[in-house]
Amino acid sequence: MSAETVTKPRGLWNRGFVSLLLTQFFEAASDNIVKDTIVFAAAVGGPWESIFGEGGSGLIAILFSAPFILLSAFGGRIADRYSKSRITILLKTLSLAVCALCAFEFARGSAYGAVSGLVAFAIVSSFFGPVKYGMIAELVEPRHLARANGIVNMATNVAVIVGGIVAGIAVTRWKASFVDGVPTGSAAWDPGIAMAIAVVLGFATCLTLPRLRPQNPTLPVDLNPFSTYIATLRDMSRSPLLAVCGAWTFFYFVASVVLLILPDYSSFLGIRDEETAWLKAALGVAIGIGCVVAAYLDTPARRVWFVPLGASGLGLSFVLLGLAPNNFSITLALLVLTGLVAGFYIIPLQSMLQTLAPDDSRGRVLGTANGLSFVTGLLGGVLFFALRGVLHMPSNRVFLVVGAACLVMATVAFAWLRRQPRLAQTSDRNAVR
Fold first, then answer.
1. Could you tell me the pTM of the whole model?
2. Do residues 258 and 310 both lie within one domain?
3. For the chain, is the Cβ count within 10 Å smaller at the N or the C terminus?
């Protein structure tokens, strides 16, 4: 790591931000290679279908989410106490060991061993979440913060898609190599090789991060993750931070429902699974593009008005999806529209979270928000199950419920922001402290 120490944020495309951007890209790609490989193996006709049972992908999602819920706030505390660049290098070093374990378990065909590796990857990522978003505010000037967030979100969406594609390619040969429940030949190592490439590249890019100073080096280390959540939420409630956090996590509630709806579109539209995957890919790319566009249009004065605009756009797009005929082209177009307007909702809120959070507690604030986003994601799964499994609502009609929720959020956000006329100026002043 460079001996250079960052004392003040710099322009957008500085070496530190580029290093973080690439590190986050490979982190997201490696996580999704592991997760998607296990999901493919547990799906109908997969070698691990009998082990995880029907709906096994839901169990895998819960196991992947649990570390983020339990450890994100604690990870934020560590991020506040220590140098975020040093923590990143430590986490990426641990990822190398986890990758080796996971590759070995895939090669020997151990479902439980591979899931253990997935949980270990999730633990590393739960600590990296508050580190990476807290680090952005230390690496770039406040006026570039929204753009930095938009670029990171764009890269993350692309990485998720790339990870899914790579997993699909690797898992095809790996699944075909199974003999008597065990993968054989060189194909047994395909998933491990794919994830190793991403993990090693992520480790290499993090080594170029500049040295960052700890923001709160005297902060006590409390091993109880829930005490950090409680204390941080109490502090957030004394400012607009709690409301901003609630609005930010709402997006992940909506996203989790949408990602559960789309797999059913193979049946609804009468298309192949590959075409359904293209619908998800189009949505992911559109969200990334929308984030970048919103970031470059963002200013502190516009930021608070982008939120109700984005929520309204999401609501209308979902209502149209719920009423649209079973036509692939129309569905694709509406999903692209949905993704484009999503950036106008999520980027301003993410920037406000970073700028309103005090320097010495930014890690805990972002860690708490990150953990809550996984809680709301699980609640979205509960809503989908209730609507589909209990009320037997068609999947496409679930979009109507999600759309109505977004329109309610738009109304609430607009009313709340009218009572917060100084929010933009306050966040801007906090950003340049």
1. 0.78
2. yes
3. C
